Amino acid sequence: MKKLFTLLFLLTFSVSAFAQKSGLSLNLQKDQVYKQTTTSSSTIVQDINGQKLNMVMTMNGTMSYRVKAVNANGFNMEASFDNLSMAMQLPQGAVEFSSEKNDPNDVFSRILGSMKNKPFRLVMSKSGKVTEIQDIDALWGTAINQFSELSEAEKAQIQEQIMKSYGEAAMKGSIESATAIYPEKLVNKGDKWTVSTKLEAGMAADLTTDFQYAENNADHALIKGNATIATANKDAYIETNGMPMKYNMAGSQVSEIKVDKKTGWILEATINQNMKGDAHIKDNPQVPGGLTIPMTVATEMTISGK
Predict the structure, then answer these.
(1) 4 within some domain
(2) Tally of domains in the chain
(3) Which of 171, 218, 279, 299 is the Cys-Cys partner for 42 at CB 3.0 to 4.6 Å?
(4) Within-domain flag for 108
């Protein structure tokens, strides 16, 4: 009898321990639409020849993700912008652009408005990785080229700026930084795992995050993340406003993410990122001899999927 009781106890304990394992992952349904609203505010401080230059950049946007097909590897989706806006507080004044503006003289806002509800394709794995993204560069090109009042040089400059934040490479990293949060295996509360993401918004950077399954509540799970972030290629120059520039930046990121336990979709999240380093402008006719600019970037981001 004692042996039977011990066997039953061990069996019960084993089943209980296994039940605690959670398949934290995306579990989206075909034909459903999932929303994600993101607000980010970045404070950028640059030291140019001993003079401090402060800039605050705020970006807001809501995206819709419609699941077209579900398979063993993940989800085929159509994504689109519901709205987009960006604002900059500069020493010389403030500028603001929004897809919701109705100002015939504000060409950039009109370009943002023309991108509303224009679907592009992406494939997302159950762990939240974007494995494929298509069509968005062509959509931006069409949106910009329709404005005949712009010169070809102006169109090229606008497209260059937009690609840094909303082109295919930039969007892949931007979406993944919010969705690629899941482990590749079952986990218990308290377990940790690591996810690596490549960012391409303005400069190429590697984001490596140690996540932890922090809380298991009735309707949501809480995931916490601590990350390191650093320039991917410190020697690579990119064209910025017609000048070759390279970055050497590094820092950290802290995140708290509540996810729906049924779908895995983010309910709400806060992400705080701090980076420090410098930007170096290569010797060129505009800046003879080149210039090194020490800088810091502090970003606060909130995400809502409700």
Answers:
(1) no
(2) 1
(3) 299
(4) yes
pLDDT tens digits along 230-273: 998 888 888 777 788 889 999 999 999 999 999 999 999 999 99
Q: Is residue 282 part of a domain?
A: yes
Whether residue 102 is contained in a domain is answered as yes
For the chain, the three-class secondary structure string (H helix, E strand, C coil) is CHHHHHHHHHHHHHHHHHHCCECCCCCCCCCCEEEEEEEEEEEEEEEECCEEEEEEEEEEEEEEEEEEEEECCEEEEEEEEEEEEEEEEECCEEEEEECCCCCCCCHHHHHHHHCECCCEEEEEECCCCEEEEECHHHHHHHHHHCCCCCCHHHHHHHHHHHHHHHCHHHHHHHHHHHHCCCCCCCECCCCEEEEEEEECCCCCEEEEEEEEEEEECCCEEEEEEEEEEEECCCCCCEEECCEEEEEEEEEEEEEEEEEECCCCCEEEEEEEEEEEEEEEECCECCECCCEEEEEEEEEEEEEECC
pLDDT in tens, 16-39: 334 456 678 999 999 999 999 999
Instruction: Give the structural domain span for 130.
Output: 23-304
pTM: 0.86
Tens digit of pLDDT for each residue in 105-162? 999 999 999 999 999 999 999 999 999 999 999 999 999 998 888 889 888 888 888 8
